[in-house]
């Protein structure tokens, strides 16, 4: 992800949606966070129960995290843009992305690819029926691609 927010011929989360999330967090944090967690998964993944598994894990790991930290993180993402740095990347890159990822849409990969000199088509894996969390929902495929990538 080189830019989180859409604009400037870049697809990402619409700024209005991020502003709504920030507004809703101050009104009803629990409901807003649960809604965001649901957005991370495709309809297929939701029906397979991955959302509940992730939510349970997130509640354990993020319990006690101040709301101000989450808000600060979202405000940072609103400004985040490193597209101008992509051409400087010299490391090999592997991207694994769900085709139904609404948080970081796969269309952004093609835009990143134009600027990333080391990104090859063979190292881009787009997973049908998968949302934002392929390491949870498609673990075996992700491990296979990562091992293959790292062994080259």
From TrEMBL:
InterPro entries per the UniProt record, alphabetical: AB_hydrolase_fold
Protein name: Uncharacterized protein
Source species of the chain: Heliobacterium mobile (Heliobacillus mobilis)
Source organism phylogeny: Bacteria, Bacillati, Bacillota, Clostridia, Eubacteriales
